[in-house]
Amino acid sequence: MGLDYISYIDSEESGDYIVDFDINCNFQSDLKLFVNQDIIFPICGTRAIFPMEVGSRNISISKGFTYRLYGRDLNYIVTAVYERESIYRKIWEHKSLNIGRSIGSIRDNFEDDFKSAIDRLERELFELYRDMETIREHIFKYVENYVHSSSSLTLSEKLRRRIRYPLSKRS
């Protein structure tokens, strides 16, 4: 969307509202939070945009990233899940939460696994169809749609079969 601002509208109805917007998110410095049952908000530190969901036993924090595949961008989301009691205990003991580092580590693992899966798929398809440019275009067409709809940087076996099938018929 690229909005430069967000506006809030007063309403007579009560309920939760989700505002979806895309902003480049950078890692944050250590952050001190105020916690009171289900209310959490930063009281000092540099705040980055981390969508946060407070569930019954866990706290999920998500951040968007971009992966470059064949010179094109794939946008996906990484989510870290923390036990609520563990977060509260760290806050109470004045310990660092290191949320940015945790999410970065999860991102690195996702990207390494994804790259390995793509490399393996390229090798398999190259045995069937010896034109790497065509293979990469074919892979990207399927992967782009999947990552866009799921916001996940994964390559399931079902998706791998879907990618392999049309090229295996050509050979």
Structure, described:
- With 171 residues, the protein is an alpha+beta fold.
- The protein has one domain.
- Helices cover 42% and strands 22% of the residues.
- The chain is built from 4 helices and 5 strands, in the order βββββαααα.
- It has helices at 84-92, 99-128, 132-150, 157-170, and strands at 32-36, 39-44, 52-54, 58-69, 72-83.
- The strands form 2 sheets. Strands 3-4-5 form a 3-stranded antiparallel sheet. It has a two-stranded antiparallel sheet with strand order 1-2.
- A hairpin with a 2-residue loop joins β1 and β2 (39-44).
- α2 packs antiparallel against α3 (132-150) and α2 packs parallel to α4.
- The longest helix is centred in the middle third of the chain and has 30 residues, at 99-128.
- Mean pLDDT is 75; it is low at 1-10 and 14-28.
Query: What is the 3D shape?
Result: elongated
How many β-strand stretches?
Answer: 5
Number of domains: 1
> What structural class results from the helix and strand content?
alpha+beta
Spatial order of strands in the largest sheet = 3-4-5
Q: Report the helical percentage.
A: 40-55%
The number of distinct helices, counting runs of at least 4 residues, comes to: 4
Output the radius of gyration: 21 Å
Low-confidence stretches: 1-10, 14-28
Q: Any key phrases for this structure?
A:
171 residues, alpha+beta, 4 helices, 42% helix, 22% strand, elongated, disordered N terminus
